[in-house]
Amino acid sequence: MALITNKTENLIPALSHFKPHLKAEIETISTDFIECINILPTYGIILRNYMDREKFISNDLPRFVKDYAIAITEALKERFPNSELFDALNIF
Questions:
Q1: Collapsed DSSP state (helix, strand, coil) of residue 3
Q2: What's 34's DSSP letter?
Q3: Contact at 8 Å (CB) between 73 and 27?
Q4: Whole-number Å distance between alpha carbons of 81 and 10
Q5: What is the pLDDT of residue 84?
Q6: What pTM, to 2 d.p., does this model score?
Q7: What residues are paired with 68 via a beta bridge?
Q8: I want to staple 48 with a disulfide (CB 3.0 to 4.6 A). Which of 38, 43, 57, 60 is the partner?
Q9: Which domain of life is it from (predicted)?
């Protein structure tokens, strides 16, 4: 009796492979656009260059820049929660 396997099975990486990248992306968005305690945001390369060229200061930026960054990081955290149980059950 032949064993039937799903060839697409190997094409879909496990969530555990994405977790370090998701964590890095959330940290980057937070560092670039969300002010933390005693740490001012860097605003990323493109926005920072624009701010320098146009002589913008961070107080001149619309509030939605920070609000949007917060919404994105919260959505990522909600969509891909850091579940210790999931990590414990992960074999590969």
A1: coil
A2: S
A3: no
A4: 23
A5: 62
A6: 0.67
A7: none
A8: 43
A9: Eukaryota
In the block, tokens 């210790």 appear at 84
Tokens found for residue 29: 């968005």
Name the token pair of 55: 């002589």
Q: Residue 8: which H helix or E strand, with range? A: none
Cα gap 89→85, rounded to integer Å:
6
Give the Å distances, CA to CA, from 48 to 13, 41, 42.
35, 10, 7
- Quote the CA–CA distance of 44 and 79 in Å, as a whole number: 24
21 sits in the region (left: phi over 0; alpha: psi -120 to 50; else beta) called alpha
Tokens of 23: 């964590």
pLDDT digits (tens, 9 = 90+) for 70-83: 999 999 888 877 66
Q: How far apart are CA 18 and CA 39, in angstroms?
A: 27
